[in-house]
Amino acid sequence: MSTIPDAPPNCVGRVVCLADLATSVQQVTATTPVSEIDRVFRANRQLRSLVVREDGSFFLLTREQVEFTLTGRLGYGRGLHARSTAIQMVPENSFALPGAMSLANAAQRILELLEGNRYRDVLVLTDEGPRVVSVSQIFERLSTEFRYAALHDSLTGLPNRRQLEESGAASIEGTVDMTRIAVLYIDLDGFKAINDTFGHQAGDEILVGFADRLRDIVRPADVLARIGGDEFAALLVDVDDVQLLAIADQVVLGASVPFVCDGHLLHVSASVGIAMAGDVGAERELSWLDALLRHADGAMLKAKQAGKRQVARLDGHGEAAPIVRNALIRRRLPQAFATRAFNLHYQPQMDLASGDRSAVEALLRWTDPILAPSRPPNSFRSWSCPATSTASGNGSSTRSAPRPDSGWMREPRAESQ
């Protein structure tokens, strides 16, 4: 199986070291006459810098520094430095960084320099010899690496949920036939037991290995992503039912092959939920991709409930209705708390045998223009904790209602207020 690659020294994740970005540079000895340095720069207008070598040490000498020195304030620079050597042209604040340093650390070191020195080329010292890199290259590449890290899973290198949404939206917009779009929602069965028994390193190796297998299964035009923990998703474009089922079956089969980790054969399986755009249809407040992911997620849960290690698909809108409604409740609850859309009602309780009224039941009712008015509490109470903060669930989110008193118990009628 694939192994997790070791990062170079002082390099973190995908951010490359300076040595990988820097290029080789022409060297001259410390005693090289300034006239020769001037001739070299004049002969090659693209040459930005040279490296001066003295007793095993290296110093960067840039075209800008040479031209400034030789020009001089009154134009007598060349005459004044006719007998100078290369080492005498090197500025006192010569700056060099080790090749093993990460771009992030290099950028930080550069920003710590005086402002006038922040824009010069940087001398990079490596085991193979001196190299040079421009400051703009460092920051441009660092920006690219940061964007890559924001859109990819650091462990497997797969796109993350955000990248799936961006790439998926572009794929869907470019699709002529929306009915030929599908989503696979994949969850590894037994993965937690592997983590608990063999440790997180073994779990990470399984995730990396399984990601590699998924790459071999999906097609180049498909978008594969790790969306969290042991869950993966794939957006398939221009696919029919037969092709979708074939790919999903390959995923189940691929997960069933044991993973080798530290001499152990580790077994997991995959539950795969599938959804075609025709199964979903357009839904309010959801993009096509979100709707497909939600239905495929529900199908994956169906596969798990049916015994795991299989492919499942929701049977029409009837089976998908609870998933659609629960997701809608989850999305609208925060707004309900924010707008104080809950009403508290008190209802006296009566003992039918004795006719006594000894208790009052408090009922929390939620009137929502989309879900339907006055939903019973059981419809939404299970979603209230994950969807809102503790503070949102306190009494301040409900409209005031009369407090029950003993007068209710004495009155011959019982009614809600």
How would you characterize this protein structure?
This protein is α+β, with helices and mostly antiparallel strands and 417 residues long. It has 3 domains: 18-143, CBS-domain (Roll); 152-314, 2-Layer Sandwich (Alpha-Beta Plaits), CATH 3.30.70.270; 338-410, no CATH class. Helix content is 41%, strand content 23%. The chain has 16 helices and 18 strands. It has helices spanning 18-21, 34-43, 63-71, 77-80, 86-89, 103-111, 135-151, 161-173, 191-198, 200-217, 241-256, 277-280, 288-305, 316-338, 381-387, 406-410; strands spanning 23-24, 27-29, 49-54, 57-62, 96-98, 122-126, 129-133, 182-189, 223-228, 231-236, 259-261, 264-266, 269-276, 311-313, 342-350, 357-368, 372-375, 398-399. The strands form 5 sheets. The chain has a 5-stranded mixed beta sheet, sandwiched between helices. Strands 1-7-6-5 form a 4-stranded mixed beta sheet. A 4-stranded mixed beta sheet has the order 17-16-15-18. Strand 3 (49-54) and strand 4 (57-62) form a beta hairpin. The protein is elongated. The chain starts with 17 loop residues before the first helix and ends in a 7-residue tail after the last helix.
